[in-house]
Amino acid sequence: MSKRAATSTTLEGQAFLKALGGAPRRENALGEEMGEFEDAWEDEIESDEDVVDAEIAEEEDALPAIGESDEPPRAPDVFIPGIHVLGNDEVLEADDSVYIMRHPMNVNWPCLSFDVLRDNLGDERQRYPVTAYLVAGTQADVAENNELTVYKLSSLHRTQKDGDESDLDDDDDEDHLDEDPILEHRSIPHIGGVNRLRAQPLPPSSPFPPVSQPYHVATWAETGKVHIFDIRPLLESLDVPGYSFDRSRTQSPIFTIDSHGRAEGFAMDWAASGPSSLRLLTGDVHSKIYLTTSTPSGFNALSQPFLTHTSSVEDLQWSPSEPTVFASCSADKSVQIWDVRSKGRKSVAGINSAHESDVNVISWNRISTYLLLSGGDEGGIKVWDLRSVKKNGAVGPNPTPVATFSWHKAPITSVEWHPTEDSIFAASGADDQITMWDLAVEHDDDETGMGGTLEATQAVPPQLLFVHQGQRDIKEVHWHPQIPGTVISTALDGFNIFKTISV
């Protein structure tokens, strides 16, 4: 990000709460449409009369040609959070030479949680334009205005300007940078704001299920209910013109989990053992975790909770390698490891005082399956080797993290490992930053660092690959599993989808 003089609004935001019960409606120039992509180009059209007048004035005021200066153009100032401070008349302006693709998207209501839907368009997609599918839940002003929305983002073209394009193919869309992306959506009503949303996991290289089969999405509502919806007909209506579907299949949840009573919650994660065997974990603010399983006849919510935490359960993650094992984190500052087969519904191992304050989010590495990320309320990010975590009741000191990063200056709101690179992860914070990290990078004394100053070199960790800014109150960030290096984020002021030159 570079900085420039402010012309209208600033990009600074206030502290971000976990649930915005009465969030303001986004102003939308298109009236009642769900959302729109921002136009960063704003093409101007000149009339023939303006062109003639300009040519006459140019002939009358012609000056002798001035030789080109040998001095290179001055590089823009790089804004580094924690080192530089914006003035009252300055706002951040994105440097589009470091983004291969960057598209902001406005929505009517804030969406604090979303998930990326695996699609039929293939894996490892490198060519532009690209298409992405998302599902998101809103936080509207009143409970009745909330929605569950499926988005189709198509014609997402390259937006890189003044970058190194020597490796581009001739048929890439570099000549179509001013073409607008296309946003389509289908929405269904949702009673209560959505605290957390997760889509049913599909195995790698799996397309959408056939339209006759369900594609499940679970929502943690602020009402204390967990709802499971079938969104497969909505996806079909986005892809097949004129497709009509039975609204009774989508308008209402196919199952509602009442196990938590009236307790609100944020923690949720799916695990899949096969097309007909799904497991959903949900955790609430009263420290209880419940398991819901699927059967050929529907879903079954188990009545006995998992109990070890002493405060709100903030996040849950199934193990990518052990089908009965999962991890949790809590406002009690701990990370716990569980096995659903253990008697007594107690955790089998744990890390007490994993952070100095609440542990907000965790992410389990799907390649190096012994690594777990955690993000705390103090802004710290830690990487844990689960092979060193002691079993509950065992004597010995707490394990120490294999890496600790203290770059963020506000609570960490989301962390996620890269789906195919085991050393790379992304994180977001309430300090309006999204950061990308690579554990494999080591300090190089020959590098001058960001901005080319000693001050920047000393302040920026070598593992920090990229800092994305410009959104307010960032809540969640996800990698797209089929478009390498592409990141999607949601914040109070809408979505961003982008790919940087760093990953």
TrEMBL record:
Ranges occupied by WD repeats: 306-348, 352-388, 405-439
One Pfam family named in its UniProt record: CAF1C_H4-bd
Coiled coil segments of this chain: none
Region (Disordered) location: 159-185
UniProt keyword Cell membrane present: no
GO cellular component, one term: nucleolus
UniProt feature, compositional bias: Acidic residues: 164-181
Residue ranges of every copy of the Histone-binding protein RBBP4-like N-terminal domain listed in the record: 89-157
Keywords: Repeat, WD repeat
GO biological process: ribosome biogenesis
Identification of the protein by name: Glutamate-rich WD repeat-containing protein 1
Organism: Collybia nuda
